[in-house]
Amino acid sequence: MNLVVNGVGQALDIDPRTTLLDALREHLHLTGAKKGCDHGQCGACTVLLDGRRVNSCLVLAISQQDAEVTTVEGLAEGGQPHPVQRAFLEHDGYQCGYCTPGQICSAVGMLDELKQGWPSAVADDDLEAQIRERMSGNLCRCGAYANIVPAIVDAR
């Protein structure tokens, strides 16, 4: 099967039961996306699939023939961190760092959804509450939310 990962075409010979997460980590050695719960509940494995954020542990790689996947490793451009990556550094939006790649990929996707006007369950005038609601699928066991939300606000 073929994928475009971080802008580079990849031909993979994988078992049809292989998840996108395992294809990235085990076959392409891109270990940014983490295997947390392996049930789609924690968001540590979040990547962008054709521009939309997904839990890569729930997606069979074989079902994504020719899809474009962006991992945390592929967000930087020209050797410079993505604005969300930079904001996470500036705001200490991480502690142990395990969830950070998924948080960052989710934030990039979420900010695009926000920009496109996707609806939220939270009033439009409360940006921080909207970010918390939209990022609720990404858990941080260390509780760095107090720094994650301001980082995303700043990156916006």
Write the layout of secondary structure elements.
Blueprint: E1 2-5, E2 8-11, H1 20-27, E3 46-49, E4 52-55, E5 68-70, H2 83-90, H3 100-115, H4 127-134, H5 145-155
Parallel strand pairs: 1-5
Antiparallel strand pairs: 1-2, 3-4, 3-5
InterPro entries: 2Fe-2S-bd, 2Fe-2S-bd_dom_sf, 2Fe-2S_ferredoxin-like_sf, 2Fe-2S_ferredoxin-type, 2Fe2S_fd_BS, Aldehyde_Oxdr_Iron-Sulfur, Beta-grasp_dom_sf
Keywords: 2Fe-2S, Iron, Iron-sulfur, Metal-binding, Oxidoreductase
Pathway: Alkaloid degradation; nicotine degradation
Written account of the structure:
Pfam families: Fer2, Fer2_2. InterPro entries: 2Fe-2S-bd, 2Fe-2S-bd_dom_sf, 2Fe-2S_ferredoxin-like_sf, 2Fe-2S_ferredoxin-type, 2Fe2S_fd_BS, Aldehyde_Oxdr_Iron-Sulfur, Beta-grasp_dom_sf. One of its GO terms (molecular function) is metal ion binding. This is 2Fe-2S ferredoxin-type domain-containing protein. The chain is of the alpha+beta class. The protein folds into two domains: 73 residues, Ubiquitin-like (UB roll) (Roll); 73 residues, DNA polymerase, domain 1. Helix content is 33%, strand content 12%. A five-stranded mixed sheet has the order 2-1-5-3-4, with helices on one face. The longest helix has 16 residues.
